Every structure is written in C-alpha cells, then in structure tokens.
Amino acid sequence: MAAHVSLCAFLAVGPQQQLQPSLHIPPQAKQGKVVVVGVEPTYLGLGKTGLPVWMLVGFGAERLGADMNRLLALLFHQGVLDEQFLQLQQLQDETSPNFVSEVVTIFFHESEKLLTSLRSLLMMVEGDDDQDHEGGLEYGKIGVHLNQFMGSSSSIGAKRVRNVCLAFRAASDHHNRHGCLRALEQLEHEYCYLKNKLHEFFQLEQQKVLAAGVRYPMNHYNNNNNINS
C-alpha cells in the first residue's frame, strides 16, 4: 500500500459479496460438476431460480460490467475524469490486461510523494507575500512539483485533480501561502476521492474477470458431445 496511508481510506465494495468463493459445498452439489477458472462457486447445483450456477455467474459478470459503466458515467458526470481515461482504456488488450490499473497505480504512488513534498515546502514558507530569496526558492520548487502533478493527472484523465493543480499553481506564482494551503487541502480531497473511486472500479473489474472465467458444466459439455456424435 502507498506510504501516505493516513490521507485516504479505501472504500469497501459490498454488493458483489455473494459471488465470493466458499469452501463449503452442499451435498446436492455433487449432482453436477463445473469446470471453473480462477474461482470456485459457492453452489454447484441449481440456484433458486432453477438456472445452473454457470449461467447465474455469467449474469453476475454482466451485472458487474453494468456496475463499472455506471461508476464511470458518474465520474464523468462529476467531472472527475475526462476522455483521456477512455483513451487509456483503449490501450489495454489481452496482452496487457492490467495496463490501466498499473498506470494508475504508478500515478498514485508518485502523487503520494508529491503531496508530501508540497506540504513540507509550504511549512517552510514564513507567510503570505514572502519575497525573500529563500521563500522564492520554495515557491519555485512548489511550482515544479505542481507541473509534474498536472502532467501526470492529465495523462490518466484526472480532470478535477488537474484543475485544482492549476489553481494551486496560480496561488504559488503570487506567493500566496494562505491560498496555497487552501489549494493543498482541496487537492488532497480530490486525490482521495479519485483514488477511492478508481480502487472501487478496479475491484469491480477484477470480480468481473473472475465471474466471466466460469466454463460450461462438464456433464452439459459431455451431453452435447454425445448428441453431436
């Protein structure tokens, strides 16, 4: 986990818990066998709906995909993300299935360090309109860090984070320490919100991959082979 632990607390994902694997298999489950990739279903017989579990889990994958789309739509509506995030997703394929999450993880890791450095630099500035040589140097370093933050946030489509960085940079250019402190608090807030929501998104994505990994029951497969032969 990233070093700046106190800054953000990950949100728990609840609605999908019924898809979690279980070590207990009821006796009636022995009536059918299921070939599973990546996850062991909690029940291998028929569900209450009368549908086999492999079909129910398939529906689960569709539901998880719908949850992912709803979450993305919310983040776009709120202005948290922009189209750059979609372009990043287009670079992900079967050869690099975790490309987006890996890029975002690097962004989070670097952002934690930048936020820590920004707060440390602001603590070294005496007050507003600090025009002395040392104060000017600190504001110059703040500007460099913010340029890095703006570039990295733009690369993943973190629109609101980038916008706060712009306001932070304006306050820094005017040596406005009070404005910088307000901007830093807002930046930390936006960063935490983005981190929590993207963590939730990638959890849904992983659960969807697991749910989609279920294969047809072996007896169903064998029956089809007997019919065809």
UniProtKB/TrEMBL annotation:
- Gene3D superfamilies with a match to the protein in the record: HPT domain
Q: List locations, semicolon-separated.
A: Cytoplasm, Cytosol; Nucleus
A GO cellular component entry from the record = cytosol
Q: Name one GO molecular function term.
A: histidine phosphotransfer kinase activity
The primary site where this protein sits is: cytoplasm
- On the tree of life, the source organism's domain of life is Eukaryota
* Keyword rRNA processing attributed: no
UniProt domain HPt: residue ranges: 102-191
- Family annotation (PANTHER family): PHOSPHORELAY INTERMEDIATE PROTEIN YPD1, PSEUDO HISTIDINE-CONTAINING PHOSPHOTRANSFER PROTEIN 6
Domain remark text: Histidine-containing phosphotransfer domain (HPt) contains an active histidine that mediates the phosphotransfer.
- What the protein does? Functions as a two-component phosphorelay mediators between cytokinin sensor histidine kinases and response regulators (B-type ARRs). Plays an important role in propagating cytokinin signal transduction.
Q: What is this protein called?
A: Histidine-containing phosphotransfer protein
Phylogenetic lineage: Eukaryota, Viridiplantae, Streptophyta, Embryophyta, Tracheophyta
